[in-house]
Amino acid sequence: MAKPALDKDLKRVSGLEVATHDLARSLAGPGIALVFLLAAAVWASFVVADGPTSYLVVIAAVIAGYMALNVGANDVANNMGPAVGSKALTMLGALIIAGTFEAAGALLAGGDVVNTVARDLLIGEQLDGDTFVLVMMAALLASALWVNLATIIGAPVSTTHAVVGGVVGAGVASAGFGFIAWPIIGTIAASWVISPMLGGIFAAILLTIIRVTITNRIDMISAARVWVPILVALMTGIFAMYLATKGLKRIWKPDLPLVMLLGLSFAALGWIIAMPMVRRQSLTIENRKKHIAKLFRVPLIVAAALLSFAHGANDVANAVGPFAAIVTTIQTGHMESAGLALPLWVLFIGAVGIALGLALFGPRLIRKVGEQITKLNEIRAYCVALSAACTVLAASALGLPVSSTHIAVGAIFGVGFLREYIAQREMKGNAVPAQARFVDPAMLNATPEDALAKERQQARRRLVRRQHVLSIAAAWVITVPASAVLAALVFLGLNLVIG
């Protein structure tokens, strides 16, 4: 009787060890995040000069770090989800690449969009400096809380939606509707509608081009040897031009002819590097679409890195835009209308926070975006990543805070719905599915008509999951009003406590 009792005790001890390990792992992320927020507070206390309102900068630094963590946890999933979902990258590899390029984009090219979010949304002259600081703090905290809630429930919402909604809600609560620069809001709202459509259209066009030039050819390997290096050259050229015009602008401002020359030069360099690489890989694959897709792994990784750089440049504004406005207002006593100071330490908090939030809390949403909306292989994921990168790069160059979530998810939907349209068109051209033509209907336990109906149902379920379309659209719609209401409540609370 002693032996069974001993076995039960050992099982209890083993179960306790497993539970303790799982608990420690679940607490590690929040613990590391808390250390980062404390470090941001200490850093801000040393950087900002002593004064009667310097404590507000410290509080705002913590809130900005908290928002940056949520941007990394939620928004970056749209960049790396396709690469992970297509198995081109492991989760660890995606986290390393995304963290590196997100931080680089935030530090090197984040300035223009910060100005739009922090300064242009509000008519600052209507408020005194202290009230404006409370508005920015309320907007930042409310948007961070909403994005955190969305991450917990697994909804890939737009952090740009959240921060703009927060600014609008806090602004209305402080000074009424006249405080909001509604023409700017209208421009941003229009971009939210246009950007997912453009992302979907570009991705569908790119996939169509690849189908025509490569995957629908009889000799797909020979076609891939020609076209895959061209696609690599396209990405390297775009990245070089963007880096020259945006990423290095603090130390170098080349004119347009030189930028074009750099783009062409790096495109040629990318083509030269890709040619032998693709040819060497093509010698070990079969003339099948599944094997041809493997040739797109390197272009997909390059596109994902490019998209992460663009996202860091564009969405760092969601974390440090209001924070930069707070720092400038406290230091000058009023909101600057001619320009917004962007200290490197402010951008650094945003960059580190985004990378850390991605590493600690990002994998769950990365899997959802990459695997649960539609089935992706390397080719389809490449189309999603490149089309999203081009759209985000153009928006960032214009200083327009578009939603990277809308662009990337719109591109995924574009690829999925194109494949669904092609599949349905092909099935309409066949009275009987391929399985029914070569397999006895009795073996399928169905008539050819039943088999065709079943095949159509499976194709729809396999290509685009409608429930995710509806749930994501609902999350997009509710984010702006929810964050606005929450920001208004937070502002009223801060006004009672601090004001």
TrEMBL record:
Any one Gene Ontology cellular component term annotated for this protein: membrane
Keywords, sorted A to Z: Membrane, Phosphate transport, Transmembrane, Transmembrane helix, Transport
BP GO annotations: phosphate ion transmembrane transport
Record flagged with keyword Cell membrane: no
UniProt-recorded Gene Ontology molecular function terms: phosphate transmembrane transporter activity
Top-level lineage group: Bacteria
Subcellular location: Membrane
Listed transmembrane segments: 31-49, 55-77, 89-111, 131-155, 162-185, 191-214, 226-244, 256-274, 295-313, 342-361, 381-400, 406-422, 469-498
Main location: membrane
Membrane topology: Multi-pass membrane protein
Keyword Membrane: yes
Family: Belongs to the inorganic phosphate transporter (PiT) (TC 2.A.20) family.
Protein name: Phosphate transporter
